[in-house]
Amino acid sequence: MSDDTKQTPEDLQRFLQEKMGNTIKIDLKAHAQQAEEDAQAVEANRHKAMNFNYKPREIKEYLDRFVIRQEDAKKVLSTAICDHYHHIQNSPSEDDWRDYKKQNIVLIGPTGVGKTYLIQNIARLIGVPFVKADATKYSETGYVGGDVEDLIRELVTQAGGDIQLAEYGIVYVDEIDKIASSTNTWGKDVSGHGVQRNLLKLMEETEVPLKSAQDVIGQMQSLIQFQTRGKVDKKTINTRNILFIVSGAFSGLTEIIKKRIGSKQIGFMQEKTGSNQDDLLVDQVRSVDMIEYGFEAEFAGRLPVVVHCNHLSAEDLFNIMKYSEGSILKQYKRDFGAYGIDIYFTDDGMKALAEKAAGERTGARGLMTVCERTFRDFKYFLPDSDVKAFVVTDKLIADRETTLNDLLTDPGRDAAWVLKWKFKKISKILSREFGVDLSFDLDAARYLSELAAEKDEDLQDFSEAYFREFQHALILLASEGSGSEYVLDGKNIKSLGETLEAWIKESYRDKNSQ
Question: CB within 8 A of 363, min separation 6: which ones?
Answer without folding.
Answer: 110, 111, 112, 113, 114, 311, 312
